[in-house]
Specification:
The chain has twelve helices and 14 strands. It is an alpha+beta fold. The strands form two sheets. It has an eight-stranded mixed sheet. The longest helix is centred in the N-terminal third of the chain and has 63 residues. It starts with a strand and ends in a 13-residue tail after the last strand. The structure holds a DNA duplex.
Length: 529
Amino acid sequence: MDKGWCLTLENSDPVGFFTSKSDFGFDLSSRLYDKEGTATMFLTGREEQYASSPADERRVVLGEVDFFSDKNRPVKDMSVKKEDLHTARESDVNTGLQLVINTGSDQSTVDDGISSDVEDKRAKNELAKLKVELEGMNAENQRLRGMLSQVSSNYTALQMRLVGLMQQQKNSTAHDSTQEHEKKQENGGATVPRQFLDLGLASEIDDPSNSSSEEKTTSGSPHKKIGRAESPESDSCGPNKIPKLNPSNPVDQSTEATMKKARVSVRARSEAPMISDGCQWRKYGQKMAKGNPCPRAYYRCTMAVGCPVRKQVQRCAEDRTILTTTYEGTHNHPLPPAAMALASTTSAAASMLLSGSMPSPDGLINPNFLARTLLPYSSNMATISASAPFPTVTLDLTHSPNPLQCQRVPPTQYQVPFLVHPQNFASVTNPQMPQVFGQALVNQSKFSGLQSSQNNIEQIQPPLHHQSFTNTLSAATAAITADPNFSAALAAAITSIMGGSRPDSGNATNNTTNVNTSTSNKSSSFMGN
DNA sequence: CGGATTTGACCTGCGC
DNA sequence: GCGCAGGTCAAATCCG
């Protein structure tokens, strides 16, 4: 014999037996309403003993409880909107009366004064709480903005200083050497600082040689032919030149080559033919790529003479709203801080990818900075691949932003406002230079109304700094506050990759780690909440 | 007219 | 060595 609870309707036969009150499926402190919500029928629970065997129908009533007596009612006259419970509970007990159970539970709108007050108070409390949270986030937002701009300005200053130092070094070596020796000094000098400056500032070291070789190409007569064997790979950052000039250092050779090849790829949804990334680009080619009906366009940075940075833009074959932009090379010119954040991020990522370790301790591309700068994409995916032929960092921005971001950023046709929203000034990336984003939309005059001439750059800069940059930072910092976990995840991903394969060791194999904060991903175990 | 884009040709690297 | 695909060049063309 078992003891249990018998549920009965008022003045009717039992409708069910349960081993405990909780098994009723709803609060026993209930009354039943008809569809109109008027007539009530009390639920009554009786404690009974009954046979566990179905054959034995005998029951012994031990006691009967009216759950609606004042003594047992948990909240006096608490009632619940009938619709809620109708849907939720009607199936639990089939009374055959199409009754609606009123449990007196606390989840619902209210139709009497007391519960109304309680609900109001609770709502107000929650509202106040949210306000406090919002204020906190705003404060953090402001703080991060300040940090971001400070880092940007620090970087710019440091970069300019480095340029000056390099120029100085170049000049001093030039005076002391023969012409042939000069060349060696230039290139040799380039490799030394790079060793500790890593990718971000390495571009500056490349500058003299880059500029000189590029100037040969660009500043010369348009009809002057540069030997084909020389042109593409004879860029100072090209892998073929270094070994000749510095054959005694194979490590540097491979590093140079890898740096040249290191790429940062950004996938984003955009209707525009090209996402704005703060740089000025000139299209120099277009090619049909195998396996993709969409042509691949080739662009070269024209913000400075001889800037070796190039990018490829191609639409995804599967989803043509997705635009894949791949950057390669290092800028040889300072860029406005407008787009520093993300540029630094990808720079740091690429740097780590290439160096096989966390960024140099100079602080420019330290993990914290990486963290802050990558966070705008926190709800998206960063894929870092060391697969051949080039180590590539891919920022996949095609995933939906997380709810927080949705709330903070007005919806646009783009999913990633920070990157491709025309008004927010897209900021994309440079694989190696922590300063690429800036002057976005210089080439996107159809969005901004700005012209894309060199002369306008200066005109553009003030609004960049004061308006668009602010917008960008807003978006960035908003995203930062939205997901504080992403940076650590990315750093872990990079470290993970580096642990498995070092591109500069020449044994790059398929070794891809995904950092995905928006969807579950088996390969990113470090992103668990 | 000057700068940007287009486009066909050419070069290079890689796999077979 | 050959063919293919990716990447680049530069003359032609477009456009403001």
